[in-house]
Amino acid sequence: MNGKAIVGRISDTTFTALVEGGLLVAGALSSPASGDAGAGNRRHSERAEQVLPVPRLDLRVGSDVYRRSVSAYRISELAQLSGVPATTLRFYESAGLLPAARTPGGYRTYDDVAVERLAFISSAKLLGLALEDIGESLAAWETGVCASVRTRLQPLVDERIADADRRIAELKAFLVSLHRTRTQLSGPAPAGACGPHCGCVTAPTGETTAARPTAVACTLTGDDVAARVEQWRELLKQCQDRGEIPGGLALTFPATTELAGALAALAAAEQQCCSFFDFELRLTSSSLVLTVRAPGAAADLLAALFGAVV
């Protein structure tokens, strides 16, 4: 239907709203005089005659007839909406991540696009990305192409996964140290003041344990001993290099976090039954090294358990 057909069936209020909203273009209209219903119909007819030709109106279901408004938020409103403190919003602006418009009075204002932009920034922060990486990712996000954003984010997430794996390995190695100290603290206390091996003071890394006055004894018996030896043999199959160090051995493995975790767990278990062993696990980008030290009295056991490399 066209504009004229509509005008004949709408109220004065709706007609005026359409004209003022730019949806209908009308010529100069005289103020209608009061009268009966017939006069009202004539007014509609006169207005219809004075309506200039306009494009056909699209009044189908779902049509967006009215102009869509754009929300404007002050910084306090955006902080409340997003849960991000206003100080952080100002910092994001200074870092070039979240630009803000300004009112004549100098107040920051943000539109709906800024809200979506902030949501992307917050998501990237949860992934642990650096501000520089977030800025580069935003450049891809601004294109509106998801594939571009994924291409940029994937290598960054891969780096974060590798970093998290390294931290996990370090924590597991730290756990081994804690178990060792706990075992020392559970043993008989020395007479008098604390000694270098009582567990109260952590021995420096690399200290030789050959002279350590610790009893060489394993609390495992029977089948448990055989099972433990088999566990070490399975892991030692992946050993790439074996070297002698003062008081023990240095075993080099592939630098994988899965293997680091397995070695850390088994070393911690070994500490529970053989407290005379000292383990140290070091993971780098290129290697995983397990050092094992033991008193001289345990040299044969050390060689039997860790000396055979398959």
How would you describe this structure in keywords?
3 domains, 4-stranded antiparallel β-sheet, Multidrug-efflux Transporter Regulator, Chain: A, Domain 2, 11 helices, elongated, alpha+beta
Give an account of the 3D structure.
By secondary structure, this protein is an alpha+beta fold. The protein folds into 3 domains: 3-50, no CATH class; 73-142, Multidrug-efflux Transporter Regulator, Chain: A, Domain 2; 167-190 and 198-306, no CATH class. Helix content is 49%, strand content 10%. It contains 11 helices and 7 strands. Residues 1-8, 26-35, 44-69 and 205-213 have low confidence and may be disordered. Helix 7 runs antiparallel to helix 8. It has a 4-stranded antiparallel beta sheet with strand order 4-5-7-6.
Helices and strands, with pairings:
Layout: H1 3-7, H2 12-20, H3 37-50, E1 73-74, H4 75-82, H5 86-94, E2 101-102, E3 108-110, H6 112-126, H7 131-141, H8 146-186, H9 223-236, E4 241-245, E5 248-253, H10 257-273, E6 278-283, E7 288-293, H11 299-306
Antiparallel strand pairs: 1-3, 2-3, 4-5, 5-7, 6-7
Helix pairs in contact: 6-7, 7-8, 8-10, 9-10
